[in-house]
C-alpha cells in the first residue's frame, strides 16, 4: 500500500528523539540506530516507476525507456504498538569466514518508552498520549560460543495486567497512566533448577531476548 504523507510530518515521532539518553551499549541506542533517518543518494537513489511513467507515458517498450532515480529519505518507525514487545539482540558478528559470539553487555531498563520510535500517527495509541510504556517480564540469556552453549531464562511472576488483557482481547488502548514496573518476583530458570533472584541480577544479564508487556 502506497500512502502520500505530508513531508513535514512523515518523519515525526510521538516523542522527541533528541531528548533520549543515547548511551552507547544500551537498548535505547540500539533502537535509535535501527530507526534513524537514512538518506538514499548516489548509488542508493530510489527508483520511481510512477515518475518514469509520467515522464515517458505508458510503458510500451521497456528497453527504450529510461528509468528515473531520485534522492530520498528512509526511516523505519513503529506504526502499531504491540501488546507484547520482543527484542532480539544480534549476538554474533562476521570474523573473516567465521561467525563470532558477541558477549558485550547491553543495558536495558525495567520500563522502556517506545514513543520516540513510534510514528506520530501510531494506530493504537490514544490521542494526546506521548508515552508508550512497556514493563520487562522475561529475559533469555545464552552462555557459550557460536558452536555450543546453554540457554537460561529470567521470568517475573506477577499479577494479571488488566490493561494488557484489554489490549489483547478487545484491542482497547490502555488509558491509565502507569510508569512503574509490574510488581512481582524474578526467577532464574536453568533446565529443572529454579531460583529467586533480584531485579539487579536480571538487569546485569547478557540478554539475548527481551520480553516486555505494554503498560500504557
Automatic annotation (TrEMBL):
- CDD domains associated with the record: Peptidase_C19K
Q: Which UniProt keywords apply?
A: Hydrolase
The membrane-spanning stretches of this chain are none
Q: Which domain of life is it from?
A: Eukaryota
An MF annotation (GO) of this entry: cysteine-type deubiquitinase activity
Q: Name one GO cellular component term.
A: nucleus
Q: Which residues form the USP domain?
A: 1-215
Cite a single GO BP annotation: protein deubiquitination
Report whether Transmembrane helix shows up as a keyword of the record: no
Quick check: keyword Ligase in the entry? Answer: no
What InterPro entries does the database record attribute to this sequence?
Papain-like_cys_pep_sf, Peptidase_C19, Peptidase_C19_UCH, USP, USP_CS
PANTHER family given in the database record? UBIQUITIN CARBOXYL-TERMINAL HYDROLASE
Name-wise, this protein is UBP16 hydrolase
Tell me the lineage of the source organism.
Eukaryota, Metazoa, Chordata, Craniata, Vertebrata
Identify the coding gene. Answer: Usp16_1
Amino acid at each position: 500500500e502506497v500512502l502520500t504523507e505530508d513531508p513535514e510530518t512523515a518523519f515525526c515521532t510521538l516523542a522527541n528523539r533528541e531528548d533520549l539518553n543515547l548511551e552507547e551499549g544500551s537498548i535505547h541506542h540500539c533502537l535509535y540506530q535501527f530507526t534513524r533517518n537514512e538518506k538514499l543518494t548516489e548509488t542508493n537513489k530510489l527508483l520511481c516507476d510512477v515518475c518514469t511513467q509520467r515522464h515517458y507515458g505508458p510503458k510500451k517498450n521497456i528497453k527504450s525507456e529510461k528509468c528515473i532515480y531520485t534522492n530520498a529519505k528512509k526511516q523505519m518507525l513503529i506504526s502499531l504498538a504491540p501488546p507484547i514487545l520482543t527484542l532480539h539482540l544480534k549476538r554474533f558478528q562476521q570474523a573473516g569466514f567465521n561467525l563470532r559470539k558477541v558477549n558485550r553487555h547491553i543495558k536495558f531498563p525495567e520500563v522502556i518508552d517506545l514513543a520516540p520510535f513510534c510514528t506520530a500517527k501510531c494506530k493504537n495509541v490514544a490521542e494526546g498520549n506521548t508515552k508508550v510504556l512497556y514493563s520487562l517480564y522475561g529475559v533469555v540469556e545464552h552462555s557459550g560460543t557460536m558452536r555450543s552453549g546453554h540457554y537460561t531464562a529470567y521470568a517475573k511472576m506477577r499479577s494479571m495486567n488488566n490493561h494488557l488483557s484489554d489490549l489483547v482481547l478487545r484491542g482497547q488502548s490502555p488509558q491509565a497512566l502507569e510508569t512503574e514496573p509490574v510488581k512481582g518476583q524474578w526467577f532464574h530458570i536453568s533446565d529443572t533448577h529454579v531460583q529467586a533472584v533480584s531485579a539487579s541480577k536480571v538487569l546485569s544479564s547478557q540478554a539475548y531476548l527481551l520480553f516486555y508487556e505494554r503498560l500504557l
